[in-house]
Write a structure and sequence with these properties.
The chain is mainly α. It is 68% helix and 0% strand.
Length: 164
C-alpha cells in the first residue's frame, strides 16, 4: 500500500475510531485525545502495517492498546480506574452465583490484585453487564470473557476460604 492510500484509509476511518474511543473512555475529550494519539501512532508506524490484514482492525488494536496503557499508568496512582467503581454488595445485580456473602472489602482486595484488563472486565461484570455486552465493549471473544470471569470468581472463593 502506498503512503497516500494508507493516509486516506486512516482519515476515512476517523469517525469509526472516534466511536470506538468514546466506548472505551466514556468522555468526549478523552476520546478525541485517544483518537489523535492513535492516528499519530499509526501514521508514524505505517511501515509496521502488514497489508494482508484489515487496516481497521490494526487501528482498533492500536487504540485499545493505547487506552489500556494509559489506564495501567493511571492505576499506579489509583487502585481502580475511575470509570469502574466497585458497587456496594447490595447494588450488585445477581451477586456472584450464590456467593452473596462477599463483602465489598473482599471484592476490593481481589480487584487490587488483578491486572488492569481483568479489573475493567470484572468491574463491568459487577456493574451488571452480561457476558456478551462485556465481550462487545472490550472487543474480546465471548469465551475469553467467560473464562476470565470464572477464574476471578475462583480467586474470590479461594480468598474467602483463606479468611475462614
Amino acid at each position: 500500500m502506498i503512503q497516500e492510500d494508507f493516509e486516506q484509509h486512516v482519515v476515512k476511518l476517523q469517525n469509526a475510531l472516534l466511536g470506538f474511543a468514546k466506548s472505551l473512555t466514556h468522555d468526549e475529550d478523552e476520546a478525541k485525545d485517544l483518537l489523535q494519539e492513535t492516528s499519530l501512532k499509526a501514521l508514524s508506524n505505517k511501515a509496521m502495517y502488514d497489508d494482508s490484514g484489515s487496516i481497521k482492525s490494526w487501528l482498533y488494536t492500536i487504540m485499545r492498546n493505547l487506552f489500556l496503557n494509559c489506564r495501567r499508568h493511571s492505576s499506579r496512582q489509583e487502585s481502580l480506574p475511575t470509570d469502574f467503581e466497585i458497587p456496594d454488595t447490595d447494588d450488585m445485580q445477581g451477586g456472584i452465583e450464590g456467593e452473596d456473602s462477599f463483602s465489598t472489602i473482599d471484592v476490593q482486595r481481589i480487584m487490587d490484585l488483578l491486572s488492569i484488563d481483568n479489573r475493567i472486565l470484572f468491574g463491568l461484570y459487577l456493574q451488571g453487564y452480561r457476558y456478551d455486552e462485556i465481550a462487545d465493549r472490550l472487543q474480546m471473544p465471548l469465551g475469553t470473557v467467560k473464562v476470565r470471569i470464572y477464574r476471578i470468581k475462583q480467586e474470590l472463593r479461594t480468598y474467602k476460604k483463606q479468611l475462614v
